[in-house]
C-alpha cells in the first residue's frame, strides 16, 4: 500500500469513527458493508477493508460471522443484577384480576410500543418460506389437511421433533411425543394429570404469569420458591420447602426463565432430576426458550437426566417459528396415558395443516440456520434494551443479564410503583409488563419485565428514554 492509499484508508476509518463518537452510528447498529462504503466514498474495496480492520483494532466496531460489521457496544457500566428472590413461604390461592388481560390487549394495538408481552416480531421469523410451504401443502395435500390428525399428532412432525433430540442432548422416540396446541395446552394437560384443585404446586418466583393464571383456573395453590437471577431455582430452598409442605408437583422453566432470564446450570439439572426421583415428585419442565441460548451450546433439559419418567417435558414452536400456528408438544413420561386422554377430551386434536407445514419446514427449510440468525438478533436486542436502561433509568435500578431468551427483568429502587408506571406508560402508547403479575401474592411492585423480541428501532429507543423520564419525574 502506498502512502496515498494509506492516508485514504485512515480517512475512511476516521469518518466512521467520528460518526460513532457523535452518535450518528449507534452501539449495536450495523455499519454499511465494505462494498457499500466503497461505492459511497468512491474508494476501492481494498481501501475500505483495512479501514474496517483499523476500526476493529481500535475497539470501535466488531465483525460478526456472515453478518457484517457492527458498532461495538459502548462499555457502559452494566447496572447491578437483581438479588435472589424472597417470596412468601406459605402456599397461596391465586387471584390475578384483570391486569394480565390488560397487558396482552396492548399487543393487539400496532401503535403501542411492544415492551410488554413476550412476543418475537414476525420480522424475525421465516414468514415467507412458511407461508409458501403452507399454501403448497393446502393445495397439494388438501384431503389430508382437512382431516383429523388424532393424538398423539402428525407422525412426520413427531419424527422431526425426535430428530432434534440430538440437538438437545436427549434421545427420545417419535412415539413418546404428543402434539398439543402450543406449550400452554401442554402445561395445562400435564398439570391436570398430576394435581387437582386444592393441591399445592411449587413454582419459581418470579413466575411466568400464564402458569399462575392456569393454576388459578385449576384451583391449585402456588408455593413460590426463591430464584437466583443467574442460576434459577434454588435447590436448597426447594429441599427445605418439600420438608415443610405437601407439594404435589413442581413447575420450572430451567432455560431462560420468563421473566428472570436465568439458566439452571447442568449440575443443578442433574441434581434436581435425582431429587424428584427420590421423592417421586412430578416435575413439569417448560423448555419453550431452550433453543434461544446466546452461548455456544444448549444445555440438556432436566428430562435428559430423568430415568424414571417423573419429568413431563413441554415446549412449542411459538418462540422460534410461528406462535399463531399453535403447535407445541409434550413428553409426559410416566403420565403419558393420562395426558393423552386429557388431550382427547380437551381439544381432541390439533389443526392438521400447521403440523404439516412445520414438519416440512423442519425437514427442508433450514431451521437450524434460522435459529442461529434468530439467536444473534435477540442477543442484539437484549443488549440494546439493557444499554438503554443503563443510560436512562434512575441510579439504583437493577437489571438481569440473561444468557438467552428475550426478556429483561428490571428492579427499580424501592418506592417506584410498577403498576402506576404501567398505567402512565400505556396512556402514552408504551406497554410494559408490571412485576406483580409474576407473583401469586402480587409481589415485585417495584419491578417490570421488558420484552426485547423486536428489532431495535427509534420508536423503542424513544419509548425507553420516555420511561426513564417518567421514572425521574416520580423521584424528583
Ligand atoms: C414460559 C412460557 N411458557 C409457555 C408459553 C405459552 O406458549 P405457547 O404460545 O406455545 O402456548 C409462554 C408464552 O409466552 C411462555 O413464556
Describe this structure in words.
This protein is an alpha/beta fold. The chain folds into 3 domains: 3-71, Arc Repressor Mutant, subunit A (Orthogonal Bundle), CATH 1.10.10.10; 93-122 and 370-475, Aspartate Aminotransferase, domain 1, CATH 3.90.1150.10; 125-368, 3-Layer(aba) Sandwich (Aspartate Aminotransferase, domain 2). Helices cover 43% and strands 15% of the residues. The chain has 18 helices and 16 strands. It has helices at residues 3-21, 34-40, 45-57, 99-106, 127-140, 142-145, 155-163, 165-168, 182-194, 209-217, 235-244, 266-279, 318-322, 336-346, 352-364, 367-392, 418-427, 458-475, and strands spanning 61-64, 68-71, 92-93, 113-115, 178-181, 200-205, 221-228, 232-233, 247-252, 283-286, 311-316, 327-331, 398-399, 407-411, 430-434, 447-451. The strands form 3 sheets. Strands 3, 5, 6, 7, 8, 9, 10, 11 and 12 form a 9-stranded mixed sheet that branches. Strands 4-15-16-14-13 form a 5-stranded mixed sheet, with helices on both faces. Strands 1-2 form a two-stranded antiparallel sheet. Strand 6, helix 10 and strand 7 form a beta-alpha-beta unit. The chain is globular and about 75 Å long. Pyridoxal-5'-phosphate binds next to helix 9.
